[in-house]
């Protein structure tokens, strides 16, 4: 057992040679850390991913320096997942849970925790110590190839779901890797492009989810990202990895690179990326040379080695070799999570749920009903040990009560498309209800590939349009990485968004279709009506290696609200088979000041006739804020389980920070608005109750002055006038009355202070003198991100 205490860790580091330190900081092969037998240091095993464990026997069990391992890695990252398991031949079967895109719609942290526990059990079974997830990059654009892995366009949901998954893992002895830090929001030129993001958007959106998770669940590792951030490689970004992550947020775990993300190993180590993965001989050689040349401070190297050892200790202390995972229980859990997350987008005329007693003929159309797309493609994929077929699960409900048939229909381009659509329209003429399983267009998608369209497969759009035109009672089930355009939305009866539902998705869908499960998922992203409405569309995906996030803090629903654009379905939307009445909202305070948050109590009842769950969303809307802000922002949520007629009161705690914005001129979170409206809502566009709190803003910070600051700004500083009079009195040998008169002359000019002053005094006062006066007045300002 490897259980050194802190002193013993220091002592081990002290005994290491430079070569051993380099080994320890550089991994071993694709998926392990290096062992150092001389010092009794074991290695640990890590692998992907956050919706299922991908244990490759050829890559992990085979030798560490397998020449083919890079090929094997690239093959996995570039793979297109299918349910048949072909390319997973060397991957051990494991549970494929709903992907991040669907889990985010659960808005259920307890379920996320249970999924983390199950993942930990499978890791323990396989001997995996560290799971390389979850990823919480903001779903800034639905085109992003890895959108399916991530939870939301909002940092609050992303953060809370991830924190729960991580706690579920780590409470059961398996480490997590919170990734990809930061701003890896699209796949285009993903290892080189610079995400150019202003600091306010970083703080309020892109870093906020990470900050939340670090505070709630202390992930054992954080993975730095592939991309550059404001011009600097994320893995080499000192401000990001040291100033913000470690100093401001107090993170004391390990930072691991994304696979081959490091360009300059010395810079990465100095910036805060401790562990370079996977092993690379050239990078090791360069690190050794940098250490030997004294280019890296020895304490930086030793601290990183200490963090690797601390991680190895945690992993080894908690390993439970030989504890078999209960895959059947995990299959049941994957069904439950999917059932609690699938979103009922539309249900015209209460088409759903289907009543098996009144159905005569049900037709299920589409290949996805038999071979469902249960996960996205890339490094996060899992070899599912079992997959529910939606059709089989639906047919199991028929018994001798109704006829059910499946009609194959591919999402691939087909010769004779109109003939096959015609045949399906005819074949469904006697059906009471037709359920179409539809998929997105797939020429580009998954890890390494952003989509270039939000369209469904052309054949599926055409089929749905034809069936709707023929008057069929039509239910569409969507499998997709992120939103799709639905030009036929007004013509179909019901739509279920199942995203990537994992191996239990087929059963989950059957339960929802027949009302055994009341749908209770809500969208964790907005669904724009068309691709052109995507926030930041005009600067996506950037040019010449730079991607400007032009929408700033106005990401997702914040953008649609700002621009008053109606999305096809708003953030937070999801229907139920029952109805909920929002009855009362109470806030324990009438005013928000700089000293305390508040508690909000919301009472909601089930006003329908079946049991159901409602995701109650709490938004904060600032009135007349100091800076332009999103109209409303999600600040808390709760999922309530209510029997018909039952009412429950849920209590939300809002903190100070929930009312503040990040002011880059002060490097601080600032409270400044006339008032705040706290809103209880069923979606971001369905506000049911609100309460207003007045705001006692903090006194505004002093302006930062330079010689060319406009004079109005200079004299807004309460000490500027006196400082200038004193300075002129001494420097120009004039009386204090003359100095006061000189200062008075400069007032009222719209020009810069020094330009104005020099009109009266020529160059008898130097610009540097004024800079000196102002420097003494200026507040201290923190380190800012590079650009
Ligand atoms: C991905 C990471 C993943 C790593 C190891 C990279 O390509 O970006 O998310 O954990 O590979 O598979």
TrEMBL record:
GO terms for biological process: carbohydrate metabolic process. It comes from the Bacteria. InterPro entries: Cellulose_deg_GH3, Fn3-like, GH, Glyco_hydro_3_AS, Glyco_hydro_3_C, Glyco_hydro_3_C_sf, Glyco_hydro_3_N, Glyco_hydro_3_N_sf. One of its GO terms (molecular function) is beta-glucosidase activity. Keywords: Carbohydrate metabolism, Glycosidase, Hydrolase. Gene3D superfamilies: Glycoside hydrolase family 3 C-terminal domain (3.40.50.1700), Glycoside hydrolase, family 3, N-terminal domain (3.20.20.300), Immunoglobulins (2.60.40.10). SUPFAM superfamilies: (Trans)glycosidases, Beta-D-glucan exohydrolase, C-terminal domain. Residues 614-684 form the Fibronectin type III-like domain. Belongs to the glycosyl hydrolase 3 family. This is Beta-D-glucoside glucohydrolase. It comes from Rhizobium pisi.
